[in-house]
Amino acid sequence: xxxxxxxxxxxxxxxxxxxxxxxxxxxxxxxxxxxxxxxxxxxxxxxxxxxxxxxxxxxxxxxxxxxxxxxxxxxxxxxxxxxxxxxxxxxxxxxxxxxxxxxxxxxxxxxxxxxxxxxxxxxxxxxxxxxxxxxxxxxxxxxxxxxxxxxxxxxxxxxxxxxxxxxxxxxxxxxxxxxxxxxxxxxxxxxxxxxxxxxxxxxxxxxxxxxxxxxxxxxxxxxxxxxxxxxxxxxxxxxxxxxxxxx
Amino acid sequence: xxxxxxxxxxxxxxxxxxxxxxxxxxxxxxxxxxxxxxxxxxxxxxxxxxxxxxxxxxxxxxxxxxxxxxxxxxxxxxxxxxxxxxxxxxxxxxxxxxxxxxxxxxxxxxxxxxxxxxxxxxxxxxxx
Lengths: 247, 128
Known about the structure:
The structure holds 2 protein chains of 2 kinds.
Chain A: E1 2-5, E2 17-22, H1 29-41, E3 44-50, E4 59-61, E5 64-66, E6 69-74, E7 77-82, H2 88-105, E8 107-117, E9 128-132, H3 135-143, H4 157-167, E10 172-179, H5 186-200, H6 207-211, H7 213-219, H8 221-231
Parallel strand pairs in A: 2-7, 2-8, 8-10
Antiparallel strand pairs in A: 1-3, 3-6, 4-5, 6-7, 9-10
Helix pairs in contact in A: 1-5, 2-4
Chain B: E1 26-27, E2 31-35, E3 39-45, E4 49-58, E5 63-78, E6 81-93, E7 104-108, E8 111-117
Parallel strand pairs in B: 1-6
Antiparallel strand pairs in B: 2-3, 3-8, 4-5, 5-6, 7-8
């Protein structure tokens, strides 16, 4: 895992530094929410993250090449956004390198918006739940009226993020928003954005994303499909060498 | 450098591999299927579509076809080229034991849910 930092952060601010982490998952909630906040707050790109085991991908923006996983910063707020799925096989190393970065930069907490599956097509009641690995972040949930994620199972990259940051003692707040698990769900990500804004005590106008919900759903079909393929790979049939009686 | 990720002009690579038809201006919608004891629920993501502009049909070969006209032209920019799309279309083969006469469909929030009941096959086994 290589982390290329384009600008170092030596300037100390009074406020505790926070890192937002967004990567493709259920409903692409993390990608939509963090990208939108980066865009609205006009955060500056300060670095990129690469890994030799990730499918080599670059994006081109106005003829300029940019990497798929980037670091942004504005004042005491950092954001890492992945525009490609983080395969569970490399997630552990990816998160460990982020934990190193947090310690180096003096970042006090990590907030990760993500999605939880909602059964059925009706999503009238979109809600965001919080899961904290630190007591101070539990209080943050309480003071901001964000209900706690009480029970359920978490698998894949999200589970790696939780386990790795917890073991490395980096305070983590997961914000889980109910969403469609297999389709891009920018409408649900609005709830995630509002919860992040509450926790960070910042204003983020969500009018722009709400206007573009339909377009974002069409534009992000590929990323959704790639994410599902990465997170739920089809089991390959491996011929058994056992004799027929044991098959 | 600042990236407006939400800008519709934003060019993402790699290029589409969802079988979008540039010539016919047809987008390939995302879909998923959930199997229940007595039915399948097939879902299609159809944003930018009105209910009245959706057609669902089953042809003689047992192929389910979903077509929808977009409310407005969707423009996409890939690799310096501009493409316009006006429709969604996707076809899929129904399972053999689908009860095709009892298929129902519901459209809400830009998502089409098609319920396909399973036809009962075989004979009951007596439990002693």
